[in-house]
Amino acid sequence: MKLRLGLISTGMFLSLSALASAEEFKIGFAVSLSGYLAPYDAPTLEGAQMAISDLNAKGGLAGTHKITAIVKDVRSETSVTQVAVQELIDDGADLIVVPCDDDPAIAGGMLAQKAKIPVFSTCATNAALPAAIGDYYFMNYLSDTLEGAALAKQAAAAGYKTAYLLVSPDTTYTKNLPEYFSEAFAGLGGKTIGKSTFKMGQQDFSAEVTQIKSLAAKPDVIVTAAYEPDFPAFIQQLRGQGLTMPVYGADGIDSPTTLSLGEAGEGIVFVNAGNPDGNPRLADFFKRYQTEKGQPLTNSFVATGYDLVQVVDAAVKAAGGIKGPPLRDAIDKLADVEVMTGKVTYAGNQRTPARSISVNKVEKGKATHVATFVMDRKTLPAPKN
Amino acid sequence: MTQGHALRLAGTREVIATAAVCGALLLIALVVSFIGATAMQASAANGFVLLVLVIGLGVFVGSTGVLSFGHASFAAIAGYISALLTIPEALKLKLVPDLPHWLSATVLPLPISIFIAVVVATLIGICAGFAIVRLTGASAAIATLGLLIIANSVLIGASDYTRGAQALYGIPGSIGLWASAFAACAAFIVARCFKDSSYGLLSRAARDDEVSARSIGISLHSARMIPWVLSVAIVALGGALLAHRLTVISPKEFYFAQSFEWLVVLIIGGMLSVSGNILGAAAIVVLIEMLRRIEEGVSIFGVTTPQIFGLTDAGLSLAILFTLIKRGEGIAGTTEFDQLPVFRRWPSLLSALAPGTVLRSAPVEPSKGALKVDKLSKSFGGVQALSDVSFEIEPATIVGLIGPNGSGKSTLLGCVSGVLKTTSGTVSIAGRVLTGSSPEAIVRQGLARTFQNIRLFQNLTSVENVEAALIGSGSTRSRASSRLEAFAILRQTGLENVADRKATTLSYGDQRRLEIARALACSPRFLLLDEPAAGMNEEETARLASFLRTIREETGVGILIVEHDLSLVLALCDQIIVLEKGHRIAAGTPQKVAEDPRVIAAYLGRSKVSQSVEHPAA
Fold first, then answer.
1. Which chain B residues have a beta carbon less than 8 Å from that of A35?
2. Which residues of chain B are at the A interface, by a Cβ-Cβ cutoff of 8 Å?
3. Which residues lie below 8 Å from residue B152, measured CB to CB, with a gap of 6+?
4. Which of A26, B289, B465, B543 is the 20 to 30 A CA-CA neighbour of B448?
5. Which residues of chain B make contact with A86, given a CB cutoff of 8 A?
6. CA dihedral B440, B441, B445, B449 (to 10 degrees)
7. Structural contact between residues A162 and A220, judged by C-beta atoms closer than 8 angstroms
8. ipTM for this model
9. Residue contact B296–A72, C-beta within 8 A
10. Three-state DSSP class for B346?
């Protein structure tokens, strides 16, 4: 009896949403197309726009709601993000996308939260943001906790027992991600035996390399979330000193530079949102991008931008409406959504998606796929405030 | 018009203009609050906060000429303090659990927390100022850059208080359009008043020329420290307001990008003008708002333009380039709003002293006691520039100092006026030893000077040049009385007609005269003139000679004049001292010196001497 009632109500909702078919869906992008966040926000927007045109060709979200994109360049500035988000709210946006860094994501997210409009950050990785902003804020990209845990899982799988961290207090990412690794690694029986701190942009890593070289027992693996220009400098100076232990990095080094480091770069392991090497659907996407845009795709943000719109599509399909609370609730309940890079689950994850994460290794100047993990939420470390 | 009446009216124009500017700012706020959507109100409020920051920065940059990158540090400090004093306790315990208990438990009303933030940031600014204001020009700019980097590292390092590089959020966003607009008005009024205050005047004088600033008694330390402290305070206010606008801050919100942005606004508007700060901020805000809309694609008569993102940055860069090429001094240059025609109907500080106003002449006390130079020696490394030079100048006499090039004349002037340190020997006035004192102390003992290559305060008007000397040397304190006295001196020196012209625009002869006027404004008992007739034609030289005689008679000042124009020296001077290779080789009346065989041999040449003596004073 209960089951039948459920079916009936689902049917009613379906017909209701069909009735509202004329209604368009506005996605407001308050993202950085210039400034330091442009390398992350711009490709995410590009991918989202590809998904939008794909979906609109099939009638829109859930096949019924045409998507309109309103794009505003916030120039990597927090105050501009606030103004742009306010404008998007005034323009009646049904969903808002904010930049890839904490300050503008929080400032813009808070406004959307107040207006009860679901809001995603393009690629902010700080897992503490959903709690900080509120129940309308969802992460889209990999979280620091997820990356740390995946690296730990890979390290344990490789049989490593000891790790050494290279952190920088200059950003949340470079500071916390290796610590999340350390926590997850401890849970898997590993041990962190030391830690060096660097200043971003310092270039000279001789002090850190000497510190590692002077360790009585060398670590099995070095883990860092450093990226350009720090990471290339570090790895070259480390290898230059004859230290050959494996180095694990985060998605920040998912860039052509890492693949062009020659001898020093060989064997680097890093995670990203998806490697076309191990994912036929993604491989097709990379090929399509090359054909459409006339240049090779060298990052995963275009694909995760595509994912974002697919997530929205799935939510609209499930939701009883396309606005505010019902949409929010629908996103929050999504499980095992098939997206471009793999699978995404929001249900039960406090708006931090459990999504597939790819482990890759640099071999002969190419990023070879090692493994894809879909992490269990219970193995993820708690986000640091 | 009586003098009292004139003084009361003086500055009416400036007051009305400032009030009008504030009225205009508030009107903008009013219009935006009525017709603007929430987003536009936010933009306008951000614009006003930007204005506070730029005006604050401008107080220092405009008064010292030093581009400061470091002010963002004080905006950051104030922003963090005000944030920590206003974030709800529960959130503080979660975000910054290691905060001292008393600080977590303290949650203050916004105005009080902003006040505390400004006070603390200013105190820190005073400490930093002791190091920064010792430097000038590029080294000072580099030092401020260092300050910015240090402050950023400290903010990141002090993670118990600041959360390090992580965002500090939950800051009450209670600074709206009106609060921002009123703060901008307050900042403008303070900065505008400071610029025309006696402290502001001395700072601007020191900015234009350090050496001559010291020669009229200005202490470089306070000339830079006072605007530094004031500007830090205003920028701190702006930083606190910014924190409450953003509601989320991290150290990178107060770093290079922001410092550059504020400097760009300052440069576009005009660094030397407070009004320029407003014009710069308005130009930038309006330009950004326009470009932002154009780049998103606009519909004009049914035609939609394509989206061109990046247009805002490109447009801003072009605007900066265009301004720098077309107007190197920025939109406003050195002018203020009160110079606009619309305000001319009211008397300004200057016009209150229009012709007809009764002026008293500059007070110069009759001098007692001689200027005595005793066995003065100066060596630069191994080169003996002066050896045991002695002479005396009685009040109300004119003494000429001559000698071939390189004989040590300018060195002697430098040593007497304190610009150069003497190796041995003493200089005294009426028995009071001056040797070893700083130039600014020496001028207060009654010794003023001019410079061989004119060193006026280029961006100041004639009357301000003289006023700076009156105030710097301690003759007067207030701008009202300094302006009156400066006018008297300008009238005395025949410069009344160019009183409100910038020094740099004066004719060469007027610039020379203004140098003398400025030196006279220090109420000197003795005046050192370094080649005052250089570059003057015969007529101008003759006028100078009679002018010098007049001031000697009227004021009893003793004059030491270094001059190459021998006819002038022979005609004008009561005594002549001749230097050669750092030695005094002759001294006495013009007649006696001109006949001295050593002088003839060393310097003048027989035929020249006879000529000059036969036809004195062309």
1. 313
2. 37-39, 42-43, 46, 94-95, 97, 153, 156-157, 159, 164-167, 169, 242, 245-250, 252-253, 257, 292, 295-296, 307, 309-310, 312-313
3. B73, B76, B251, B254, B255
4. B543
5. 37-39, 42
6. -30
7. yes
8. 0.84
9. yes
10. coil
Contact A79 B246 (CB under 8 A): yes
Asked whether the beta carbons of residue A78 and residue B253 sit closer than 8 angstroms, the reply is: yes
Sequence-ordered alpha helix ranges (H) in A115-194: 129-133, 144-157, 172-187
pLDDT category at B365 given cuts 50, 70, 90 is: low
Are the beta carbons of B169 and A72 separated by less than 8 Å?
no
- Contact between B268 and B283 (Cβ < 8 Å): yes
Q: How many angstroms separate the CA atoms of B81 and A79, rounded? A: 20
Top residue of A74, A76, A86, A129 to mutate, by most chain B CBs within 10 Å, is: A86
**Residues B304 and B297 sit within 8 Å (Cβ to Cβ):** yes
Q: Which residue has the higher pLDDT, B348 or A32?
A: A32
Q: Identify the burial level of B480 via C-beta atoms within 10 angstroms of its C-beta, where 0-12 means exposed, 13-18 middle and 19 or more buried.
A: middle
Whether B292 sits inside 8 A of A72 (CB atoms) is: yes
> Which of A83, A133, A384 should one mutate to test binding to chain B, selecting the residue with the greatest count of B CBs within 10 A?
A83
pLDDT at B41: 94
User: Average pLDDT for residues B192-206, to the nearest whole number?
Assistant: 93
Q: Specify the residue for token string 């290796």.
A: A178
CB atoms A87 and B39 under 8 Å: yes
Put simply, the answer to whether B94 touches A90 (Cβ < 8 Å) is no
CB-CB under 8 Å, A79 with B169? no
The pair of structure tokens assigned to B579 is 């230097």
- What is the average pLDDT across B86-94? 94
Residue with tokens 């290339």: A232
DSSP state of B503: G
| Residue B143 parent element (H or E) | helix B137-157
Residues of A in contact with B167 (CB under 8 A): 102-103, 106, 132, 172
Find, among A239, A244, A243, the residue nearest to A262 by Cα.
A239
Contact A348, A377 (CB under 8 A): yes
Please state the φ and ψ torsions of residue A147, each to the nearest 5 degrees.
Answer: -65, -45
**Residues linked to residue B536 through DSSP beta bridges, in sequence order:** none
Tokens, residue B28: 């903008």
**Using CA atoms, how far apart are residues A97 and A306, in angstroms rounded to an integer?**
13
| CA-to-CA dists, residue A332 to A107, A309, B143, angstroms | 21, 15, 51
A379: CB partners within 8 A, 6+ apart: A149, A153, A184, A187
Q: What percentage of residues in chain B have a pLDDT greater than 90?
A: 60
pLDDT at B606 over 90: no
Q: Angle at the Cα of A140 (from A137 to A142), degrees rounded to 5?
A: 125
Using a 10 angstrom Cβ sphere, with 0-12 exposed, 13-18 middle and 19 or more buried, the burial of residue B91 is middle
Do B297 and B305 form a contact (C-beta atoms < 8 A)? yes
Percent of the residues in chain B that have a pLDDT greater than 70, as a whole number: 93
